[in-house]
Amino acid sequence: MHLDNIDPKPRLEAAVDWAREAGELILGYYQSAGLKVDRKSDASPVTEADRSAELLLRERVAEHFPGDGFLGEEHGELRSQNGLRWIVDPIDGTKAFVAGVPLFGTLLGLEAGPDVLLGVCRFPALNEVISAADGCGAHWQIGEQPAKPIRVSDVADLSNALFCYTEVGLFEQTNRMDAFHELRRRTRATRGWGDCYGHMLVATGRAELCADPIMNAWDAAALLPILHEAGGSYTAWNGEPTIHGGDGVSVNAALKDVVLGILRSGQIT
Fold it and tell me: Is the pTM higher than 0.90?
């Protein structure tokens, strides 16, 4: 298979369907009094909903695109036979899910060599899905309404920007509180609408930047193509458009340079 000649549309359509199916499974556990929460080695929470949804997605990939690889947060990697690899987070925002807060999402991205060809982010409890594929634009569907194209905002002054993040403690843990305080000081509002929800606020033009100092590939794979197709960017803090940088920021085009400058240095002088 020549990766340069792949039509992403069939896989995008399949991924949107799979995310809906996984979301229905997840909602069977949502706000359940009997939900059992385990702790992984890094102390982050995981539930049967995470594990079961990832297995479902893994089975769908194997059934429909048997040569594709698969990397999930909960069950590890299945090696690719054709250069394509799905990277999946069944519940991005498990802490929100466990708390009964609806701002968690199911993420699917498709990696082809150094590129990510498509991304799907579904919010099961909100019944919303945002999706994109290389060259096809980015779209947002709410419930059964027709999907509509999305664009990042055109806010060009940081003082008018909304800054989102996931956890202040992650900035402390990585010795990046200078960057957090500088962004908080220079933006009009700072909100902890984090995980994939914050990044999708940027993609849909409702926020201007969402920065996270710790990001894994499964957190980021769906985000990069969505932000790119929406006219913004998802990059590592060094500005590289990668899902493997260990940190990440989604930002509109007008503020990209100034935001990356703050993140690189910790503070603008």
Answer: yes
